[in-house]
Structure formats: C-alpha cells, structure tokens
Amino acid sequence: MLLSYLRDRLRLTGTKYGCGGGGCGACTVMVSRYQPGTKTILHYSANACLLPVCQLQGAAVTTVEGIGSTKTRVHPVQERIARAHGSQCGFCTPGMVMSMYTLLRNTPQPTMEDIREALGGNLCRCTGYRPIVDGFRTFCQESNCCQGNGNGTAGCCLDGESPPEKSGNGLPPQLFDQGDLLPLDPTQELIFPPELILMAQTEPQMSQRFIGENIVWISPVSLDELIQLKADHPQAPLVIGNTNIGPDIKFKGALHPIIISPTRVQELFAVTRTAQGVYIGAGCSLSVVKALLEGLVQELPEEKTEIYRALLQQLGNVGGQQIRNVASIGGNIVSAYPNSDLNPVLAAGSCKLSVVSKGGRKEILLNKDFLVGFGKTSLKPDEIVLSVFIPVSRKWEFMGALRQAPRKENALATVTSGIRVMFTEGSSVVKELSICYGGVGPCTVSASRTCAAIIGRPWNEQTLSEAYTVLLDEISLSPSHPGGKVDFRRSLTLSLLFKFNLQILHKLWEMVRTGSLLPLQNNFPVVNGQSVDDQVGRPVMHHSAISQATGEAVYCDDIPKTDGELHLVLVTSTRPHAKIRGIDVTEALQVPGVVDVITSKDIPGKKFRTFTGVDEELLAENEVSCVGQMVCAVIADTREQAKRGAAVVKIHYEDLPEPVFTVEEAMEKKSYFQPQRTIERGNVTQAFEEVDQVYEGEIRLGGQEHFYMETQSMVVVPSGEDRELRVYLSCQHPTYAQESIAETLGIPSNRVSCHVKRVGGAFGGKVTKTSAIACITSVAAWRSGRAVRCVLERGEDMLITGARHPVLGRYKVGFMNDGKIIAADLHYYANSGNTADESVLVVEKVLLHLDNAYNVPNLRGHSVACKTNLPSNTAFRGFGVPQSMLVTENMINDVAMKLGRNAEEIREINMYKEVSLTHYKFQFDPKNLLRCWDECKEKSDYDSRRQAAGEFNQKNRWKKRGLAVIPIKYGIAFSEGFLNQAASLVHIYKDGSVLVSHGGTEMGQGIHTKMQQVASRELHIPTSFIHITETSTSAVPNTCPSAASFGTDANGMAVKNACETLYRRLEPVRKQNPTGTWESWVKKAFLQKISLSATGYYRGHDLYMDWEKQEGQPYAYFTYGACCSEVEVDCLSGDYRTVRTDIVTDIGRSINPSVDIGQIEGSFIQGLGLYTMEELQFSPSGVLLTRGPSQYKIPAICDIPLQFNVYLLSDSDNPHAIYSSKGIGEPVLFLGSSVFFAIKDAVAAARAEAGMDGPFTLDSPATPERTCLACNTDFTQKIPPSRPGSFKPWALNIP
C-alpha cells in the first residue's frame, strides 16, 4: 500500500498509520491526475492505507511534507491549524491538513459546508474539532466578519448585532489573531509534474502486470482486454477504489491470487444522458456521481429529479470524503452489503445495470432478483457491470431515502431505506409503490407484500395503519440476528415508512437539521499590569504545533529503522477461559524471515508485573483468562513476516467451565478483586425511616475505548555493551516502563533508559499495558541482540489493551416532598476484566466522588471490582469519576421525576452551599462551584430556553427538545501522596539558550508548552530561548505518571524550582551589569565559574485516604464546572443533535487559556462520545466485536454542538497549585453527560405526551437505539418483545 511505501521506502513519515482501514483519515494524501480529455488536473484526497502503489501509474501524490515545512516555507493551511490551537497530540493533524489542502486546491474560497464535508473522514480524539474548524474557517469568504477572528462573539455583524464587549485593556480576548496569518495564494501552489502530462499525452496506453509475493495485479487498458481477463480469471475481483477488497485482505485474511484493476478502461467511466435518465459508468467514483447528480438537480425540472435527490441524500453518508473519492458506484452496488445506503434507493427507483461478458451485453433490473444474499448478486463470475442507469422521475412520483446510523455521517447504517411512490394523476391513490430496506436481512430487502397491500388504495392513515401490520409480519428478524438491535431495527422499518409518509403529506423533505457551526465563544481573564514579556496566562501556541502540522514531528514509529531491526507481533488467546496444553511454534519458525518466538519460558527475570498488589503475567504460561490475553510473540525481519508467523502458531487449549462475562455473573459467583470499599456518613438506615419518599433505581454504563490516534508503539535498541537498552516508546509513565523492563530482564534499572518525545494521545491507556508490551519487546531484543519494533494495529490494540470500566450502579434514595435528599445508598459494580490492573484504585475514586456537588447528610457507598473473563480494563481519563457521577446524577434525575419537577431544581436544592465537609471529612468551600452553576445558567439563558423548549415540544409530535445543566466537583492530584512529587533538570548554555527536562510526558495536553511559559517567567527571557527536550529516565529519574490532571501542577513547580535556583545564581552578575543582556550575563557567569545547570524538585502534597477510618485528604483541591446542553431528538429514529452547549469552568488562573480551553473542549466531546455513542460489544463467547473505526464510532466533526461556548470563571485563585492555576485535563469529560441528560429530558417529554410519567430506564450510552425505544412511540410498541432466555443474543449486555 502507498502508506507503507511512503513511510518505509521514502521515509516520509508525516503520513500516519491510524487504523489501516480508511476509517480515521490520519493517512490522508492528495492524489492528482491529468485528464487528457479535458486537459485539466483532478485533485482528490485519499487514504494512503488503501491505495495500492501499482494503481498510481501517472498520478502525482502530495504528502504533508510536500506542501510546506519549517525548513522552507510553512503553508497557510499548516499555519492556521497550528495558530488556531487545532493541534494537540498532533497525530491526526497531517491528515486534517491534507484534507483541507486538497479542498483549497479545488475550491480556494470554500464555504463552511465545504469544510465540514472535507473533514468528515478525519477523526480527532484530542481537540473536539472546534479549533480545527475555527482555523480553517479563516479561508472562507464569510470569515472576514466578526465571527472569523478565532474567538467568536455573542453577536454577529452580519446580523446587525453589536460587537463584543472589550476587556480591561480595550481589546477583546483572542485565542488567535487572524490579522497576521499567512495569505493563501493559489498561484504559488505546487504544479503538476509536466513529465506526467507529457506521458499522458504521448505515451501509448499499455496493459500492466505487477507480480508480488502472493498476488498478481493486472491493469488492462481496453474493455475487450478486461472482458477476456474476466473470462480467463472469473474468480478474480475487479478493484478500482480498493475500499472493499483491501480491508478484506488486511483484516479478514481474504486471498486473491489475481486482482484485475480496470481503472484505465474508459468505458467504465463514461456518462451518457438520455431523455429517460442517465447512464453512469460503473467505475465512476461516488464523488463524481455526487457532482454529476448535483448538476442534474440544478438543471432539470424538480419533478424529474426525485431519485437523484434521494441518492444525493445517501451519497453524503457513504464513508468520508477520502472514501467517496476512490470508491466506485459499481463496486458499491455489487458488494451487496446488507446495510448498503445506495442499493435500497437504486432498487426502489427501478434502476438498471448494463452488464457485459464474452457472451455479450444485457441489462439487469437492480432488484431482489439481483441482490440475492450476503455479499452476493446474480452476476455470473465472468460478468462485468459496465454502467448504472438511473431514470428521471415522473410527475406525481415521489422518492424518499431515509436511514439511521450510529453516527450522523461516515457510519454504516443500522437501517436504511429507499421508498418510491407513484400516484394516479390528480389523486392520492397509489399507482406504483416500491419499498426497499437495508440492514434487516442478508441483503437489500423488498417489502413487496406491503406494497401490494397499499397499491390501488388512497394514501391515508387507514391504509398505512394496515400496511404497518403487513410490514411487521413481512420483515422479521431472529432475536440472535447478526448485529443485534433487533427490536430497534424492526421499529425503524415502521418509523422510516411513517417519516416518508410525513414527507409526502407535507410535500417537502424533512431533512436532518445540520445547521452551520458557529465559532467558539470564550472568555478568559486578561491580566492588567502584566508585562508583555511574561507569557504566563497568555494563549501561547502549542510548542510543537507547527512541526506537527508539517509532519516533521517525530512519533515513536517515525524513528528511522536501525540496521538489522526486527518486528514483533503478539499472539493472543482465542479462548476466554482455558488451560494451555501446549504451544507449537514449529510452523511459525519455518516462515521465511521469522527469527524467534518468545514465550513465557524465555523471560530471564520476573515473568509477571505486580500492580496494586496483584501479580499479572506478561505472557500466559499455563492458563488464559480472556480472549486477547498475550500468550507469545513472533519476531521477524518484517512486520508482514511476523504476522504470517503469528498466524500459524498453534496453541492447544483445554476449555474451563463457566466463564464470567457480566457483573451479574460475577456477583452471583462472588468473583471480585480485593479489597472491596465502603464509605458512609450519617446514619443511612435510620434516615430512610424518616423521609417522605424512598425510590430505588439503577443505571448501566458501558465501557469506552481510549482510541488514541497513535496505537501502542515502541522500539527497543540494545546498546551492545554493559547490558544496556535504549527504549523509545509512546508512554505516560516511562519510569514504570523502565522498572518493569529491568525486573523482567533481571538487570538494574540504570541499564535501561526510556525515552518519550511525544505521545499521540493516551487518556490513561498508556501506563500498565504499555509497560507490559515493552517488557515483551525487550525480551525479544535481549534474546536476539537486535533492535525490535512493536507497533500494534488498531484491532490488536483495542483487543489487548482494555478500556474504561463498564459499571452497574444501583441506588436507594430517600427524600422529602420539597426535593431535599436526606439519605442515599449507592452500589457500584465495575467490570474489571481478567486482571486487577488499576481497578481497585478506580473503584476507590468512584466512592470518593459519589457526592459530586451535593450535600447529602446520610450517604453510603459501596464499590467492587468484578473479576471477569473479558480483557482487563484500565485507567481512562476521569479514572472512575465519570461512572460514579453518572449514577449520582441519574439518581437526582429520578427524584425530580418522582416529584414532577425539573432536575435542575433538585440539583440546586441539594448542592453544597457553604464551607462543608465531604463524606470523607475533607473541608472545602463550594463558593466557586455555585458561581459556575449560576454563571452557566445565566450565560446559557437557561430559563428562557427551558420555556422555549416546552413550547417547541407542544407543537412537535415527533421531535422533542431537552435541556440539562450538570455541575461537577472534581478532586485533583493523586490520593497516594508519593505520586505527587516531580523533578526537573534545567541547563543554560553559554549562548544563552536553555534546555529543560522534566518528568511529564507530552501527549497533547500542552505540558511542554506550559513548562516553557514557566521557565520564561522565572528566568525573565522569551520562550524562544527555551527548548523542552524529550522525557527521559536518564535525565530525570524516578518520575511519576502524567495523569490525574496533575502533570502541570507537579512538574511546573519542579521547573520553577530549578529556574529560581539558576536565576538566584545569576544575581551577582546581574547586579554587576544591570543593563546587560541575558546572553552577556550567562557568558559572564560561566567565566566566573557559576554553575549553569540545576535540578528542581517538588515534594508535592501529602495526600492520603484512610479507608479504615473512612476519612482523609485524598486531593489537593477541587476543579469546579457546570455545563448546559440542549438537544433535539427525533423520536422516530432516536437520532439527536446537540443544538447548543455552554460550559463554565473554574480553573483558577490559567497558565495558557488556549491549551486549557482546548482541553475543556476535547474532554467534553470525549464525554459526549462516552455517554451517547461509543459502544464496546462482545460476543457471547467474550470476543470483542468492535475493533476499529468501522465498528466503533467516536465523535466526528458532525457531532460537535452547533453552538459551543466555553467560559473560564474570572477572579478565581488557587493557592494549592503553580501560579494559582488548576488541573483541567479530566474534570470536564463528565460534563458530556449534560447531553445524555438533555436527551433523557427530551425522551421524558415524548413519554409524557404518550401518558407515561415518572422515572424510566435509559442506560448509557444513550444511543439512537436506546433513545428511540425509550420514547416508546406507537411504532416501538408494535414490536413484540423477545422472551429472555429463549435465544442467544448476538452481543452481551456489558457491564
């Protein structure tokens, strides 16, 4: 593939590996081709991981390195994403840059819709997308108004509203200034290589044949040659975009000895218009088809374009822009996916296929006789689809295309439909009707009996009511149907038909409301009287943002390969609970290139790691306890050879009985990790007897995959002497990795040096598992004496490394009729997986935050870490707090519903109001918590919007709006006091430049940038003098993990300490020459033999928690916040849109507002994903089913709120942290639950309209499935429930 060619052969490592399946956009490049017919250059973005190099003959490929660099000239696209603070960890940035660059090459002045579409195939896990959009917005024509300056305003000049108020110094606070951005000059872009134009014009087209190790790739140039090839090799697939065959080969192990690529057969790309419709060549890309249909819609009368408009609606949902640019319409059709978006519309629209073979040409109607099964059509092996005929529509003919998917865009549909109706002229009597569905069978399904029940009758409520009964009987699904969601899918067949009915009745298209993204509104304190040279408190750009945007930033797998380097691939268990009877590596060792297979017996030192007091095997030796447990590892000369070797390792198992997968099963068998934790204040039992009402409820919260963009990566290099190893890895805790490797190899820690330049996202997932994989890789390097590289593929990473703990929360709450909660008893059951990892610490933090913002006088909590036979779960941003507080807030919500009041009223009644003690007897002042709450309600205009939502709900039957305001009180720092220390090393060189080393790792949170600002203030020099070097155990030993939102607090104080020491040493020199320059002082100090190097140390807070006494001070301070979100829910499909979000956070005095606001936004969007869309699904045998972006959906650019406002609380001080700042990396993630509770509020409105009041179950995430079923519409009520125990579900209900 092009990606490996760029990275391995050409050493162009700016193009990143993110998923390998075209689902994340990290590998986006621009492909340019000369079109001899029109003499124009076609530019399009594409995923390099899916592009075969042999298909690129005559094309020019532009990578991120090709458009600009720090060594030559930075391109405006690169500059603007960096200046707008749109690059945090930076791993996705080159892909974002190339998507935008390609758009600008085609459209130099794009609209916001153009930008949104261009970025739809790119994922980001750090930023929340807002700063990326704001940076690229500056290329739009409309960006010249007040909205385009990167900070947003409350009113817009285009609306005739007033400009924003100015701050104390007369200037509005800005995160970046548009005025000095590099201008975009299209005349200065790279030209298409003239030699390629000459080649296209003069060289004769010749067929090509590429012979690889396992595949022969043939590229014909004529239709006759193609027909002959297909006759000779009928089983050979035709590949144009490689978006289907490529992933099948990579992920499913499909083997195709011969592949035919007809990309140069002109007949496959021809377009012919007739009065009856249009013939589109089967090789035309979906983007070309989309552009063609858009032109026809503009040109033809509206009544003739019904089918075209329906197809356009679906085309925008097929993949991302990069996929649509290469995937062909013919390939999309003949792939015959069950949930195809296009086939139901094409089938309902009576479209035809022109088919050619040695036997001649014929036309086939695209219907149920053509689509015959899963991935199967009626095409004969030697037949080729030449073109697709799409007819024009007729007068009185209407077409609808409706779908529901896990994500609004770039996601395969759950259910999709194409519905066409033809009325008898001048009446409502149905003359023709075609209803086709995808996602409810092995292929596209035609509801022919339902159509027959409607044809000849008037289109009215009675007809449709009877048709629903027929449809329900006609399309039935087994409760065990692949993909699950059976009740939801069946209800969608009814509700999508009803939505089409609404379209017909209103004679309009009820399009999904997307709106236009408004720029970020924010405010942050502008410090009066602060020196302009003092960078603390200013929105300084991320120190690596430019190099990340140019692709020059080096990540672990970008490190050049050393001579003789080997590649390691892990072999994992395929059984959830079994004894290992033997490991046969004979066949693996015979694979060419394979050097060795590492098993537990090869480990020279400790074969396990001890974390939280529990031993965890590095490689399973006698028994496996989950699917995905590491058993052995294969090392080979290349990764492909190692993969082939791993595939033939034979592990012989003896299954053990009754594996445990869910928390209910663990509870039944008392399968827990110890200790269990309990905490109580007051007398809960007695209080329950004295309250007005008691209510019991529960909520389930699913797990969440970290989905850091850079998968687990490491390179271990033996030095060749003194048993030394240099380890380069993507890790949050290099010291733990160092200790682990040393103990595994049985050598002192001083022989192992771990180096972390930057991490492409981590979120807690690169601590324990990274260290374990690093130990195995080190054993391989130790045994072979050669460097070994291990980079997990996305599916491997998701299978092996665990996720956020799923939790079952149960509660009993006692309250008075006025809303005051008197007593609460909460129980938390966390699904920890097969090993303890950090689970006990997680469930402890669950209990420490169960009060959130509420002063409940009698409060009891109990939490346990359940041991199950699923992959071990681990730390994740928030570390149990998002689970803990969701249960608490759901309890508050239920109390409100029992009393018939808004949840916000109950929250206000029960909040901490004055200096108080927590349930673990820690005193704090909630003043800023209350300020955040009040300001959030005020800035969001909550009261008037609550009233407006009520009015909206009264007027709309099938769409409902909901609002929720959620507070947070989040403890910062480690409750284990020793983890709060930090150290640093600062050197001043004779030229005045400064090198800073510290113990924190840069993973997108901007810690290096903040350390630059700290050193700049303390040394009184510009940040340009200061360089932050890699995090290394050789420079700063015994570091603590970069976690708990405490990295800046601890390392900042250590850097400050070192710089203060150095500045004091320079004091005599400065006094001797007070008007001298920094450089002159440094040179003079050296001559006076003054040391210009200093270590810094910060002891940290002495924090603790005594679980026996149930008291302590586990946190240094609290970060507070509040968030108001409003959603609009489609009750018929469960889809929702976040209309607006307002966040107010108290983060003290921000060291860097741009970094902190970026953390707030990114954390919120990650929380939105946790609570509304991200689902980890396991088969009944414990196999993870969601192993990549095609199955596991994180938020994309389409999911950010239409209006997103972030405010930092002013006049806030924090004496417990550096420069009065506060940690912010984790707290705001929980505020994403405001969207969950807003959805629940909207669902409650729908239920109330149906006469259902009181508490109801809505588990997290509030997916469209759960939301739709909770709305309990007439259509969901028609679905007969499946009897529990009568079938085997497709997926487990985890936790």
Automatic annotation (TrEMBL):
<feature type="binding site">
    <location>
        <position position="24"/>
    </location>
    <ligand>
        <name>[2Fe-2S] cluster 1</name>
    </ligand>
</feature>
<feature type="binding site">
    <location>
        <position position="27"/>
    </location>
    <ligand>
        <name>[2Fe-2S] cluster 1</name>
    </ligand>
</feature>
<dbReference type="Pfam" id="PF01799">
    <property type="entry name" value="Fer2_2"/>
</dbReference>
<dbReference type="Pfam" id="PF02738">
    <property type="entry name" value="MoCoBD_1"/>
</dbReference>
<feature type="binding site">
    <location>
        <position position="763"/>
    </location>
    <ligand>
        <name>Mo-molybdopterin</name>
    </ligand>
</feature>
<dbReference type="Pfam" id="PF00941">
    <property type="entry name" value="FAD_binding_5"/>
</dbReference>
<keyword id="KW-0408">Iron</keyword>
<feature type="binding site">
    <location>
        <position position="877"/>
    </location>
    <ligand>
        <name>Mo-molybdopterin</name>
    </ligand>
</feature>
<dbReference type="InterPro" id="IPR036856">
    <property type="entry name" value="Ald_Oxase/Xan_DH_a/b_sf"/>
</dbReference>
<feature type="binding site">
    <location>
        <position position="732"/>
    </location>
    <ligand>
        <name>Mo-molybdopterin</name>
    </ligand>
</feature>
<keyword id="KW-0285">Flavoprotein</keyword>
<dbReference type="InterPro" id="IPR016208">
    <property type="entry name" value="Ald_Oxase/xanthine_DH-like"/>
</dbReference>
<dbReference type="InterPro" id="IPR005107">
    <property type="entry name" value="CO_DH_flav_C"/>
</dbReference>
<dbReference type="InterPro" id="IPR000674">
    <property type="entry name" value="Ald_Oxase/Xan_DH_a/b"/>
</dbReference>
<feature type="binding site">
    <location>
        <position position="49"/>
    </location>
    <ligand>
        <name>[2Fe-2S] cluster 1</name>
    </ligand>
</feature>
<dbReference type="GO" id="GO:0051537">
    <property type="term" value="F:2 iron, 2 sulfur cluster binding"/>
</dbReference>
<dbReference type="InterPro" id="IPR016167">
    <property type="entry name" value="FAD-bd_PCMH_sub1"/>
</dbReference>
<feature type="binding site">
    <location>
        <position position="19"/>
    </location>
    <ligand>
        <name>[2Fe-2S] cluster 1</name>
    </ligand>
</feature>
<feature type="binding site">
    <location>
        <position position="124"/>
    </location>
    <ligand>
        <name>[2Fe-2S] cluster 2</name>
    </ligand>
</feature>
<dbReference type="InterPro" id="IPR002888">
    <property type="entry name" value="2Fe-2S-bd"/>
</dbReference>
<keyword id="KW-0560">Oxidoreductase</keyword>
<dbReference type="Pfam" id="PF01315">
    <property type="entry name" value="Ald_Xan_dh_C"/>
</dbReference>
<dbReference type="InterPro" id="IPR046867">
    <property type="entry name" value="AldOxase/xan_DH_MoCoBD2"/>
</dbReference>
<keyword id="KW-0479">Metal-binding</keyword>
<dbReference type="InterPro" id="IPR016169">
    <property type="entry name" value="FAD-bd_PCMH_sub2"/>
</dbReference>
<dbReference type="InterPro" id="IPR002346">
    <property type="entry name" value="Mopterin_DH_FAD-bd"/>
</dbReference>
<dbReference type="GO" id="GO:0005506">
    <property type="term" value="F:iron ion binding"/>
</dbReference>
<feature type="active site" description="Proton acceptor">
    <location>
        <position position="1226"/>
    </location>
</feature>
<dbReference type="InterPro" id="IPR001041">
    <property type="entry name" value="2Fe-2S_ferredoxin-type"/>
</dbReference>
<feature type="domain" description="FAD-binding PCMH-type">
    <location>
        <begin position="210"/>
        <end position="395"/>
    </location>
</feature>
<dbReference type="GO" id="GO:0043546">
    <property type="term" value="F:molybdopterin cofactor binding"/>
</dbReference>
<dbReference type="InterPro" id="IPR036010">
    <property type="entry name" value="2Fe-2S_ferredoxin-like_sf"/>
</dbReference>
<protein>
    <recommendedName>
        <fullName>Aldehyde oxidase 6</fullName>
    </recommendedName>
</protein>
<dbReference type="GO" id="GO:0071949">
    <property type="term" value="F:FAD binding"/>
</dbReference>
<feature type="binding site">
    <location>
        <begin position="328"/>
        <end position="332"/>
    </location>
    <ligand>
        <name>FAD</name>
    </ligand>
</feature>
<dbReference type="GO" id="GO:0016491">
    <property type="term" value="F:oxidoreductase activity"/>
</dbReference>
<dbReference type="Pfam" id="PF03450">
    <property type="entry name" value="CO_deh_flav_C"/>
</dbReference>
<dbReference type="InterPro" id="IPR006058">
    <property type="entry name" value="2Fe2S_fd_BS"/>
</dbReference>
<dbReference type="InterPro" id="IPR016166">
    <property type="entry name" value="FAD-bd_PCMH"/>
</dbReference>
<feature type="binding site">
    <location>
        <position position="89"/>
    </location>
    <ligand>
        <name>[2Fe-2S] cluster 2</name>
    </ligand>
</feature>
<keyword id="KW-0500">Molybdenum</keyword>
<feature type="binding site">
    <location>
        <begin position="238"/>
        <end position="245"/>
    </location>
    <ligand>
        <name>FAD</name>
    </ligand>
</feature>
